[in-house]
């Protein structure tokens, strides 16, 4: 019984670590895109940086914030989905329009 609860805790911390690493790597990629925007003044790179930041770090922050406020799983999933859709729309804008 104790071993099962320890396994659940380890899986939760592993999941949190994986999401954190994803957010950090995503922020690094977004920073590179933003530096490209600053160097060339390209609106595409700015939009791409914002979209990648939302898809990685934005989702991480939104999920952590809604989790910490005690929101239910449905609200957490809704917020995660909304931030993901907004990030994808910004990336689509960067590719098609800008």
Average pLDDT, to the nearest integer? 89
Could you say which overall geometry the principal axes of the C-alpha atoms support?
A: elongated
The structure class reads mainly alpha
Q: Helicity range of the residues?
A: over 70%
- Give me the Rg, rounded: 17 Å
First-to-last CA distance: 56 Å
Query: Biggest sheet, open or closed, and with what strands and sense?
Result: none
Number of DSSP helices? 3
Strand segment count: 0
Strand fraction: under 5%
| Order of helical and strand elements | HHH
Low-pLDDT windows of residues: none
Task: Describe this structure in a few short sentences.
The protein has three helices and no strands.
């Amino acid at each position: 019984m104790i071993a099962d609860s320890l396994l659940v805790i380890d899986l939760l911390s592993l999941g949190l670590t994986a999401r954190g690493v994803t957010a950090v790597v995503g922020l690094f990629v977004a920073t590179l895109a933003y530096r490209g925007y600053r160097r060339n003044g390209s609106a595409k790179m700015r939009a791409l940086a914002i979209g990648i930041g939302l898809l990685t770090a934005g989702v991480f922050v939104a999920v952590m914030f809604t989790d910490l406020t005690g929101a239910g799983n449905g609200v957490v999933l809704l917020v995660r989905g909304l931030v993901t859709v907004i990030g994808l729309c910004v990336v689509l804008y960067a590719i098609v329009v800008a």
